[in-house]
Amino acid sequence: MSETFDKQATLAGLSLGKATEYREIYAPNLLQAVPRSMNRVELNLTAELPFYGTDRWNGYELSWLNSKGKPQVAIMRCEVPVSSPNLVESKSFKLYLNSFNQSHFDSIELVAEALTKDLSQCAGEKVEVILFKPAAFSQMQISSFDAMSIDDLDIEVKDYQLEPSNLSSGGKQIEETLTSDLLKSNCLITNQPDWGSVFIRYQGQQINHEGLLRYLISFRQHNEFHEQCVERIFCDIMAHCKPNKLSVYARYTRRGGLDINPFRSNFEQIYPEVRLARQ
C-alpha cells in the first residue's frame, strides 16, 4: 500500500500533463526526477539488477547566448546510467533545456559543465554529456539497425493489452539479432503515444518470432515511461524465453526536440550511435 501511495505522490508532483510556463533563463530547478524503484518493484528488481546499460538522450533544440549576446546552437547527447536511482522526466528535461535560450555562457564547455552537473544531480549519479558543434552535424547520418526485421510476418492481431505469455522459445541454440518498428506505448500520465523501434540481440533457444511480434504489439495500449517499457521487455524475455545473453535497445521518436534511447544488456555495452529515419 505504501508503494502505491508513493508512486501516486511522485507522479502527482510532476509537471507532466499540466499547463506550464516556458522559461528562457537558466533554471536547473526545472529538472524533475522519477525514482527507478517505482517501476522496478513491480518487476521484482529489488536486488542486484539483471542488466546494465544506459538511457541515451539526444537533444536537438539546445541554444544559448555567448558573452556578446550572439545565439549559439549545439546538439546534446547524454548518457544516464541504468544504476542511477532516478530517471530524468522528459517534459522537465525539455523545459530545462529551453531555459538556456536567453542565458549567457562564455563557452560551450561551460554549457556542458552546467548540463553535466544538473543532470547528474537529478539522476543521482554521474551523467555523461557531449555537445556537438554545427560543424559536426553533417557527420550524424541516418542509418538503420543491422538486424532482421520481424515486421513482415503475416499475423492476425486482436488484442492490444500487454501480454507476456505471447513469448516462447524452443529448439536449437542460436545467436540472433531482431528488430521491429511497431513498438508503441503511451505516456504513463498524459496517455500521449510514444513511438519507437526496438532491437533485440540474444543467444539461446530460438525465440518464436510471431510470438515476439505479438508481444511487442501488445504494448500498444500500455501506459509506462520509455525506460520502464524497455526494462519490462528485457525481464519478460528473460522470464519466458530464458536466453543466455540478451540486449534490448529501443530508439524512440523525438518529442520537443528530445529522443530517448534506453539500452539494457547482460553481456555488452551500448552500440555506436545510429540515428533512425523516424528520429
> What coarse outline follows from CA principal-axis ratios?
globular
Strand order of the largest sheet: 5-3-2-10-9-8-7-6
> How is the biggest beta sheet arranged?
8 strands, mixed
Secondary structure tally: strands:
10
Give the CATH superfamily of the largest domain.
GTP cyclohydrolase I, C-terminal domain/NADPH-dependent 7-cyano-7-deazaguanine reductase, N-terminal domain
Please, what is the average pLDDT? 93
Label the CATH architecture of the largest domain: 2-Layer Sandwich
Structural class: alpha+beta
> CATH first level of the largest domain: which class?
Alpha Beta
The percentage of residues in β strands lies in 25-35%
Compute the number of helices: 6
CATH fold assignment of the largest domain: GTP Cyclohydrolase I, domain 2
Assembly of the depicted chains: single chain
The N- and C-terminal alpha carbons lie at a distance of: 39 Å
Order of helices and strands: HEHEEEHHEEEEHHEE
Count up the domains.
Answer: 2
Low-confidence stretches: 1-5
Helix content: 10-25%
How large is the radius of gyration?
19 Å
